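Recall the central idea of this unit: under ordinary conditions, the amino acid sequence of a chain determines the structure it adopts. In this exercise we apply that idea directly, starting from the sequence alone.
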Amino acid sequence: MLIICNGVFKSGSTWLHAIVTELLFLRDIKISTINKKYTNNVNSPTSIVESKFLEFLKNEDFSKKNYINKSHFSSKKVINKEYPDSVIFLFSVRNIKDSIVSHYFHIKSKYIIFTNFNFYYWTIGRLKAYEIINYNAKYKNSFPSELFFNFSDFKNDFDQTIKRIAKLLNLDPLNDQELLTIKSKTSIKNMRNNIVSGKTNYYSTVKSDRYKLIRSGKIGESKYFFNNKKSNDIKKINNFQVSVFFKMIYFFLFKFRRKILKIE
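Accordingly, the structure predicted from this sequence is:
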């Protein structure tokens, strides 16, 4: 079995990956190590980068071994491909404004220039919003709705959401104690402690205070950051009402930069 936790940026994909990992551990399902030749960062939970994904499918026996990968795959050749039952994609989705606020704190931790949300939004944030919206549209056009898990569902109805995931993975039903164990193991406190202790390697590209990127994830936090002007702007972006110039800037700052620098 190959499980791809493929949520968009700042949608809760790290949480989803941690939850699935705990589910497999509870069911004594051994997770096989992925050969480092499939990644460009051995310190990342993204053990398979998109450019090596089809090679992995061709060469590795995921019908008998179990693998898990945290990713943001988006290319047509990956998203539109037909997969056997042993390959399971899971998607995390989140309110776009909350995702952008979360991305702001992520960027702020890496680049000192982004200390103000207003400056961040009008330079990078609205471009990131466009990317997130594009990715989600691709995913929803290619995969059935039962594979999507909303961040608010994890926050508001954790137990039922975990049961949904377990059912999709064909795992035995969870009892109340097991649900409590997963909730505890994937709490903010535990996930932060696991980063500090080196047990997990989330956000490996952040040089200091990585644990702070495991945030509380409050629903509706964006209301403290978005005024009417920003709200109207992101609404237009959500409806793909953007200029050609906007798309050109996005292409060069995001897609072209990643290609040149081989960022995956």
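The two ends are 23 Å apart (CA to CA).
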